[in-house]
Write a structure and sequence with these properties.
The protein is mainly beta. It has one domain (5-140). Helix content is 12%, strand content 37%. The protein is built from two helices and 13 strands, in the order E-E-H-E-E-E-E-E-E-H-E-E-E-E-E. The strands form two sheets. Strands 3-4-5-6-12-11-10-9-13 form a nine-stranded antiparallel beta sheet, with helices on one face. It has a four-stranded mixed beta sheet with strand order 2-1-7-8, with helices on one face. It is globular. The protein starts with a strand and ends with a strand. 31% of the residues are buried.
């Protein structure tokens, strides 16, 4: 099975990858990933190069899914990496955007964005993450005005 497009909405990412095992993700994407060393203990990172996706696993469950161009992630039918207004719509949909370490953190949607707000195209990425994943940095987060 080969997935071409992903969609993000208030319910999360579709098709759903968070919480799946490595075997389930390999099957859904129809690709064997390249393994990378993770910077955090207890985590493994897998690059699905044909899809431009990086998956972070803890205890064989996906806790983070990162997308970089030219991955096709749609929000309200519009491609995130091709239309500069889309990231602002995602931020607005979350309603409580925060920034830390160069990331816009959207905890209500479970999404981070980087490279969009500072115009750094080399850093463009969107990540969906498991609940609580960014909570440790809450005190360092500041509100974002778009």
């Amino acid at each position: 099975m080969m997935i071409g497009n992903f969609a993000l909405d208030a319910n999360g990412l579709s098709p759903q990858l968070l919480g799946l095992s490595r075997k389930e993700i390999d099957h859904l994407l129809g690709e064997s990933p390249r393994t990378k060393r993770s910077g955090l203990p207890g985590e493994e990172t897998f690059d699905y190069e044909a899809h431009h996706i990086r998956v972070v696993m803890q205890q064989d469950r996906a806790v983070e899914i990162a997308f970089v161009p030219p991955a096709c992630v749609l929000f309200q039918g519009q491609p995130l990496f091709e239309d500069s207004s889309v990231w602002r719509a995602i931020v607005a949909a979350d309603g409580d955007a925060r920034e830390t370490l160069g990331f816009i953190v959207l905890r209500n949607l479970g999404v981070t964005l980087t490279g969009f707000h500072d115009g750094d195209d080399s850093q463009l990425a969107m990540t969906v993450f498991a609940a609580g994943r960014w909570d440790v940095l809450e005190d360092e987060m500041r509100p974002v005005a778009i």
